[in-house]
Amino acid sequence: MKKLRSLIKQLAVTDHMKKEELNTLIWEFICYSPQWPVRNHQQQLLDEARKFSVSVSDPHFANRELNVNGYIWGSGKIKILLTHGWGSKAADFYELIDALRQLDTMIISFDAPGNGSSEGELSNLLLYAGAVKAVVKHHGAPGIAIGHSLGAMANAIGLSDTPPGSLINLSPLIRLKENFISSMISQNVSQPDQDYFFQTFNERFDMDPADFNMNDVYRFGENVKHWLAYDSQDMVSPYPYLQDFIQKHPSIQTQNYVGVGHERIIKDERIIQMILELTKAEIDRG
Length: 286
Hints:
By secondary structure, the chain is of the alpha/beta class. It has 2 domains: 1-32 and 176-211, no CATH class; 43-175 and 217-285, Alpha/Beta hydrolase fold, catalytic domain (Rossmann fold, 3-Layer(aba) Sandwich). It contains 11 helices and 8 strands. Helix 1 (2-11) packs antiparallel against helix 2 (19-31) and helix 5 crosses helix 6 (150-158). It starts with a helix and ends with a helix. The model has no long low-confidence stretch (mean pLDDT 96). GO terms for molecular function: hydrolase activity. This is Alpha/beta hydrolase family protein.
């Protein structure tokens, strides 16, 4: 978190900064995932897990393979994959994991590159999706995949070839480019400097960030049961973007939890109870 505060402080005084120097700073601001300490109850949860690791190639930042740390709780009938959002980690699903452990489940989660205990200084959606693919290759396709925020889009990409039986999304991020723009506007980055950032993004990734749109990356058919929880007042994942996605996929069951908040949605008791009910139904179906 100290690094993020430092980046924000530097972005406040860029008048005499050269174009390339400022662009490097913007890249760090956009792609640095804030690190939050593990709390005591979260550490106890991690201590009770079976540990594993997979590797993910990072050709855009580190230029090497990154070690991704994962955790497994239980060995039950339904395999559940949990994919966290930006600036988060597996342990942040504490309340949900604790509840799901009471059922006949195998819960698998991981710290995405640049998050939690996994390697990486900077992160991006492709690293998240690469971690999902690596975990599924190691442990097999999940019966239920749960994604929060950026993790929902990572699941859409990473599970495209190995679809789960059911998909649960919590406040999914819908348009990545617009999220970048919002972040830069919050720090008063000028339009020319935003344009230059996107130019260098296209050069580095050989694609436009507008391509990272849930409407484009989501390829699951109606055979994948999908339940989606959101907050229509969410400013991180604005409802108009989500509404557009939902209208294009009318088979998705949705529920609006007004005022729950983008981050708190993974801890809300009502949502956890609904996930438990959906999981019990999957177990009963066999």
